Amino acid sequence: MKRKELSIALALAIISAGSSVYAAEVVDFGDEDVVVTANRIEEKVMSVPANVTVITGEDIRKQNIFSLRDALAKEVGIYVSPTAETKDGLSIRGLYSKDILVMYNGQELNSAFDGTVNWDSISMENIKKVEIVRGAGSSLYGGHAVAGVVNIITNDTEDNDIHVRTNLSVGSNSTWKRGIAISGGVDKVHFDIGYDKRTTGGYPGYYRIKYPGAAGTAIAVNNLPQLSDGGYVIGSRGRKSKINENINLNLNYKFTDSKELRYTYAHHDYKYDYNDPFSYLHDATGKSIYNGTIETQNGDFIKASYSDFLGYHGERGQDIHRLTYEDKANTFKVGIGYSNLYKEGYSSASGVKSIDWSGSGSKTEYPSKNTNLDIQKSWIINNNTIVAGLGWSKNSMDYVSWKLTNWRDWSTTTTKGNTAGGNILNTALFIQDEIKLDSRWKTYLGLRYDKFDKKDGYSIVNNVRKDYSDSSYSNISPKVAVSYEPTDKLTLFASYGGSFNPPSIYKLFRRAGDAMSSVQANPDLKPEMSKTFELGAKYQPTDKTSLGLTLFRISTDDKIALDTRNGVKAYYNMDSGMQKGIELELKHSFDAQWRGYFNYTFESGELTSDGVSKRNWNIPKHLIHFGLANDLGKLSANLDFQYISARQSVNAVTGEYGSEDAFFTANLSFNYNFNKNFSAQFSINNLFDRKYYASEATDGRNYMFGLNASF
Question: 3-state class of 468 per DSSP?
């Protein structure tokens, strides 16, 4: 492996030696027609050999979209669970957020603890655009970039005048959204600062199920909703309320027209609670009861307790810093980032004695940090556009549990429980050569070398400490792509990419207990390795019509799964998986006022364990979005339809709690500009009030009304 590392280092050194000969030209495209994420340099979307989507901040604000997840949900190949918490719940090509690299102005947002992403950690007020690049991205970006890369890019004003943008929205379920953004500058210094707060009272979605078999004397006989598997629905934790606050700052200093220093800061604070639990159980007088043995209408006996109806209290706090220096004339960029997820976890009640219990409980916290350095340089040498660079990062985690005297108040800690922690250091070198063979043909050859050092791992259970030996592993991620442009309106491409997902720190070092039946640490875990093949076409016959078609197949080895081996329960590299599918997207402008869109994704997959392959029913087989949008001057509207097929076996029962139903919904939004400084938005989600389940119960028809002002 040292020989491979030396070879890559030598290649970079040779390229660097020739850097004074040619510099890549500065290219200036429009925001919607150009991406920087796909190949780390600005390129037209039409020319990139990948399925790429650009969502503009203007579109997000015009439709009064509540969260980033809602904006992504409309795009081809993306499924967003309608009930999932803001963390995770989004998939691309059948893979969830730990397999999607998500960045904020180039700073990684994937948690060091488990690789997942909090999709609502970004303010909606200062988004310039969101670039979505589907397909293997590890050859340029390293870990997590298996299904694709999502890069959130914020505003960078160059105007010296002070501008203020405000938003106030109110909607169903006591939902509020408030936001303000201020931008301006003096001479060479420019800034954009924003704040938003999103709150919702929520709706009852999580219900409690009890199964027959309880013993004892029944205190009441009840007629309860019953599921097909024999379980009885006894009630709910109630509404899941959320409070989400975000602060962001962009600060730019321009040395010259081509050289600038940019500082990005984002702060995120999030809390959730379950409120107003309710019970379907009642005594002879009709009074709700939450504790005791109940006889059902079928003569079955079930037992309920107060704790069944109490949920969790969760908190999350994060600070993100990114300092970037860019010399566009010499196509050189260096970035230093620090992400401090200083608070993340949940608490729950114990010893519950009433439905209003505010007594003892416990909390589990798993904060994490990421520090990184990224340097890149690009050159044009004859017909070669070369991008090369290096990266370094350090991920760390601290896991700890506590006893609480008040389970909703994290400051009331008493006894410290299990703890764990560790660090992962990553050093990487990458290079990609875009070779223009002639006016129609281009090839892309990329390679990245990653070396991981697992260090300082430990766990403490019942005051007994275990230290884990430091170890290392390395990985090579290749990329080969070919594009052919028979005309300036058509691009055909094919690609192969190797990608990987590194093991999460908690799977490496956290122990759940002393007994072998408890989940043990496994510091020997290796990364999950994937191979992605793609064929695609992009066709734009006129400036009014665009069509895209992509076929993909992703195969993954060494998938990490929980298992018991030799009596030890832990996470092991033991499974394999496969996803394949077709993505079709069509956009057409009928005239200056009306435009339509349609996208369809077919996807399927399988999981293989111990040599046995089974259909992965968690992947929706069909995803369809289509709609109409118009712009009638002051008034614009968007009518969007969505169909998602079932995420469960064809033999499974649908239409009841716990099922993953197929659903067809419609959303309608309006935007009215009173003048250039003042506008109003009104939206209706789930227009036809569809009732369906996505494991939990989903919300019905809901509304949002908003006002935007700028000056």
Answer: coil
Which amino acid, one-letter code, is at 704? Answer: M
Task: Tell me the C-alpha distance between 619 and 95, whole Å.
Answer: 8
* The pair of three-digit structure tokens given for residue 542, joined into one six-digit string: 């006129």
Determine the Cα–Cα distance for residues 161 and 156; give it in Å rounded to an integer: 13
- DSSP-assigned beta bridge partners for residue 670: 637, 682
Residue 2's φ and ψ, nearest 5 degrees, are: -65, -35
- The two tokens of residue 511 are 């122990």
d(CA 164, CA 126): 11
**What's the pLDDT tens digit per position in 311-330?**
999 999 999 999 999 999 99
Q: What is the DSSP code string of 380-438?
A: EETTEEEEEEEEEEEEEEEEEEEEESSTT-TT-EEEEEEEEEEEEEEEEEEEEEEEE-S
Helices (H) and strands (E) in the chain, counts: 5, 43
* Nearest-angstrom CA–CA distance, 130 and 135: 16
pLDDT bucket at 8, cuts 50 / 70 / 90: very low
Residue with tokens 């020739």: 18
Contacts of 611 (CB under 8 A, 6+ apart): none
Pick from 618, 619, 579, 621: nearest CA to 600? 621
| Alpha carbon distance 309, 234 (integer Å) | 9
- Tell how strand 413-436 and strand 441-461 pair up: antiparallel
Q: For residues 539 and 175, give the distance between their C-alpha atoms in angstroms, rounded to a whole number.
A: 41
b/e map of 686-699 (b: 16 or more CB within 10 Å)?
Answer: beeeeebbbbbbbb
Q: What is the model's pTM?
A: 0.91
> Residue type for 433, please?
D
Cβ proximity of 289 and 280 under 8 Å = no
Beta-carbon contacts of residue 256 (< 8 Å; ≥ 6 apart): none
Handedness of CA 109, 110, 111, 112 (dihedral sign): negative
Nearest to 126, CA basis, from 58, 178, 63: 58
- Among residues 75, 180, 114, 688, the alpha carbon closest in space to that of 399 is found at 114
CA 534 – CA 493 distance, rounded (Å): 8
Count CA atoms closer than 13 A to 75's CA, side-chain side: 23
Distance CA 536, CA 481 (A): 11
Cβ atoms of 710 and 166 closer than 8 Å: yes
Give residue 187's Cα distance to chain centre: 37
Residues 165-206 pLDDT 10s: 999 999 999 999 999 999 999 989 999 999 999 999 999 999
Around Cβ 326, how many Cβ atoms within 10 Å? Answer: 17
What is the C-alpha to C-alpha distance for residues 706 and 698, in angstroms, rounded to an integer? 23
Residue 210 near residue 232, CB atoms below 8 Å: yes
Best CA proximity match to 266, nearest among 410, 144, 155, 393: 155
Q: For the chain, what's the residue count?
A: 711
Residue 131 to residue 33: CA distance in whole angstroms: 11
The answer, yes or no, to whether residue 695 has pLDDT greater than 70, is: yes
What tens digit of pLDDT does each residue of 492-544 get?
999 999 999 999 999 999 998 888 889 999 999 999 999 999 999 999 999 99
The torsion region of residue 679 among left (phi > 0), alpha (psi -120 to 50) and beta comes to: beta
SS3 488: coil
